[in-house]
Design brief:
Blueprint (H helix, E strand, L loop, with lengths): L9 E3 L10 H10 L10 E5 L5 E7 L4 E7 L8
Parallel strand pairs: 1-2
Antiparallel strand pairs: 2-3, 3-4
Amino acid sequence: MIGPSGAVRVMVATKPVDFRKGMEGLATLVCESMGADPFSGAVYVFRAKRADRVKLVFWDGTGLCLFAKRLEDGMSFH
């Protein structure tokens, strides 16, 4: 499995973000908006304006990882 192992801290952004941003743009938001370190091993969760999409950014020890999820059938992350 690709992803963090063991106990992981999860930080959730409280406001929707521009989903055109990639991992570098989201890592910048982690620093500037959350005041955190994107290379700490924590998972950072971002929601799109449309509540059916999320992106997760995390450092796996070798590089930044970006995971994106889109829900189907009218479901949303609320």
